[in-house]
UniProtKB/TrEMBL annotation:
Protein name: C-type lectin 6
Domain C-type lectin: residue ranges: 35-149, 173-300
PANTHER family given in the database record: MANNOSE, PHOSPHOLIPASE, LECTIN RECEPTOR RELATED (PTHR22803)
Molecular function as annotated in GO: carbohydrate binding
Transferase listed as a keyword: no
Entry keyword annotation includes Chaperone: no
Signal peptide (from-to): 1-19
């Protein structure tokens, strides 16, 4: 019985101190944190943003344990030595390197590759980490793979929207979560942000959902949105896909098929430089909008996606091991 109580207490303690997180990240016990390798190369700026939007940081080899876990994460995927971006950058001023969470380069035990760092052409402001363990300074604009890291010791819990981002709010009427982004973006940036948050630009599937979005918009009055740009429109998830007038959701359905196609009076009007992107007014009536125009936007998220996992013991799925098994 004592043992039972002990393990129960231990279990509670474990759950409280090491938080659950998205299952597409892998928990590693050595660093008590969650790792996800993004194997598709992106610029450093986009890599940083994607990790940040997931409640994670762009991973840096800040200790020998972190370096070992990063190499492990890469070795499971890349068969050859590969350089990935780390969170170490000097994008604010040349040669002042910090991790994205503020640890100065001088505190980090890096092993440099031969002749690195050299700030080649005075254009290198981001630090890469090779799966062979060596670091180099490289251009931030040249796309590379990267790893996002979420400390398992963060106190913020995953909420009912299935995210650590408490700006997602659940609406029983549609059983979906929505986030109103007050920081404006182009349609392209808005689509990136919603996707990185594991949602999509909001798609109106019913009158009920239009009412929900009206409410979401009303909860964000002009006075709560800093900056000078239009605040009476917000991007949502439809687009003409290159053929003006044939407006479809970002999931490919016509607006009618999706369940809501009410444009505001006089819209769509293809104003200014041509309007291919979808937006709503505060009335939740639709508008076609110039895609490059930075305005607020609304993301929609299924609370059950992505699934959430508890921290577990390390799972070993080494490619090396698989190869070894084959050889035997
Ligand atoms: C590791 O890779 C770098 C390139 O990123 C290369 O310059 C270096 O020689 C390699 N080091 C070893 C020990 O293979
Ligand atoms: C939309 O507007 C653009 C820019 O004024 C114009 O080039 C294009 O032909 C218009 N398209 C339609 C279908 O009206
Ligand atoms: Ca260099
Ligand atoms: Ca919807
Ligand atoms: Ca319009």
């Amino acid at each position: 019985m004592k043992t039972f109580i002990k393990s129960f207490v231990f279990l509670l303690f474990f759950i409280y101190t090491e938080c659950a997180f998205r299952c597409d990240y892998q928990y590693r016990q050595l660093t008590k944190g969650w790792f996800k390798l993004y194997e598709v190369p992106e610029t450093w700026q986009d890599a940083r943003l994607r990790c940040t939007l997931q409640g994670a940081v762009l991973a840096s080899p800040t200790s020998s344990a972190m370096a070992a876990e990063m190499r492990h994460t890469m070795k499971n995927f890349f068969l050859q030595d590969t350089e990935i971006f780390t969170g170490l950058h000097a994008t604010f001023s040349s040669q002042s390197y910090y991790t994205v969470d503020g640890i100065p380069l001088s505190k980090i035990p890096l092993v440099w590759a031969n002749n690195e760092p050299d700030n080649f052409g005075n254009k290198e402001r981001c630090i890469t980490f090779n799966s062979n363990g060596s670091a180099a300074d490289r251009m931030c604009e040249e796309p590379r793979p990267y790893i996002c890291f979420r400390s398992g010791e963060k106190e913020v819990l995953t909420n009912r929207c299935g995210t650590v981002d408490d700006e997602y709010h659940y609406y029983a009427k549609t059983k979906k979560c929505y986030k109103f982004h007050r920081v404006p973006g182009s349609f392209e940036r808005a689509h990136f942000v919603c996707s990185a948050e594991n949602g999509h630009l909001a798609i109106i599937n019913s009158e009920d959902e239009a009412e929900v979005l009206r409410k979401v918009f009303a909860d964000n009055p002009d006075s709560s949105i800093p900056g000078s740009f239009r605040k009476e429109v917000a991007y949502i998830g439809f687009h003409d896909w290159g053929t003006w007038g044939d407006f479809r959701t970002v999931h490919g359905e016509t607006l009618k098929e999706a369940g809501y196609d009410k444009f505001s009076g006089g819209e769509p009007n293809n104003a200014t430089t041509g309007e291919h992107c979808g937006a709503i007014y505060r009335s939740a009536l639709l508008d076609d909008l110039w895609c490059d125009k930075p305005v607020p936007f609304i993301c929609e998220k299924d609370p059950a996606y992505p699934p959430i996992c508890q921290p577990t013991a390390d799972e070993e799925i080494d490619i090396d091991e698989r190869f070894n098994n084959k050889v035997e």
